[in-house]
UniProtKB/TrEMBL annotation:
GO terms for biological process: L-methionine salvage from methylthioadenosine. Keywords: Amino-acid biosynthesis, Isomerase, Methionine biosynthesis. The keyword Amino-acid biosynthesis applies. PANTHER family: METHYLTHIORIBOSE-1-PHOSPHATE ISOMERASE. Gene3D superfamilies: translation initiation factor eif-2b, domain 1 (1.20.120.420), Translation initiation factor eif-2b, domain 2 (3.40.50.10470). It comes from Kangsaoukella pontilimi. Belongs to the EIF-2B alpha/beta/delta subunits family. MtnA subfamily. HAMAP family: Salvage_MtnA. Substrate binds at R51, G52, A53, R88, Q201, N251, K252. GO terms for molecular function: S-methyl-5-thioribose-1-phosphate isomerase activity. This is Methylthioribose-1-phosphate isomerase. It is an enzyme of class 5 (isomerase). The record marks C162 as: Transition state stabilizer.
Amino acid sequence: MKVNGTPYRSIWYEAGEVRIIDQRWLPHDFRIATLKTRDDFATAIRDMWVRGAPLIGATAAYGVAEDMARDPSDANLDETWQVLNATRPTAINLKWALDRCRAYLKPLAPSDRAEAALRLAHEIADEDVEINRRIGVNGLDIIKEIAARKPAGEPVRLLTHCNAGWLATVDWGTATSPMYHAAEAGIPIHVWVDETRPRNQGALTAWELGSHGISHAYVTDNAGGHLMQHGLVDMVIVGTDRTTATGDVCNKIGTYLKALAAHDNGVPFYVALPSPTIDWTVRDGVKEIPIEDRPEREVTHIQGTAADGSISEVRVTPEGSPGGNPAFDVTPARLVTGLITELGVTEASAEGLAAMFPDKAA
């Protein structure tokens, strides 16, 4: 995707360094950070310099590669796995990438690990780009079907929650990929962008869509049900941080409420699902998926641009009022119309996922 006309990925390797778009400052300021040490990578994941399950996984892979260049021993490989895996508990792509790295590197001689780890990190990043591109192609078919039923020139109205855009992946995004493909195909769309408190990740989605000239409006988290009641939403599409083998979907807090509203109003609710985000070891999302509790300051304070253009933080709650901050919730499979994967669209069920990914399901 492009920023001010320049193509970027959210993470890349340049001049022997791993660089990221530091998302703490978006949409107010575009900054690039360089990650060098294992602590840099752990901090970037934990403190949300990078966000989104696919991007977290790619970042962890590059973190392993950088630390193998420092110390390629078995002990350090295991320690790096532990340190990075402990940063965020919900997004399964983190563990998926770390497991893949460790399994690939363990049989190799320590002297070969640094080069091999970097090669694998590049591979994981490139794979993510292609997965998300294909999700966009498959999601485009759904948008085309909706567009064909609407009066000529009337946009397909989509609602999304959190940022499942290219900033949350290496490129394209998951939920946004069908939107970009629709725009390229000349299909008029309008996107309702949930603010997604407390981190206001919808502002990142709005920044992305605005940069690509896609019609959108930034709305409060509680506006979705109202919009659906009045026929202003044709389709809900969200991303996922972990999906169970039975089709339960864990995503940013508030997704479950959107699914309930969509179900009550007969609005199709789709989830853009890259296959590495499926946790084949989990069957009951509500009972088994660990939900991250983040710092209460994210709820009690908010960051924005002041009148003088500076970026500042202000308190929005009374002094002394504590904040609760569960970062994710689980939407049961029964509320999901379909899962848009890189291989096609399937129903949210054990049978549907097993048929689409038989090798992984086994």
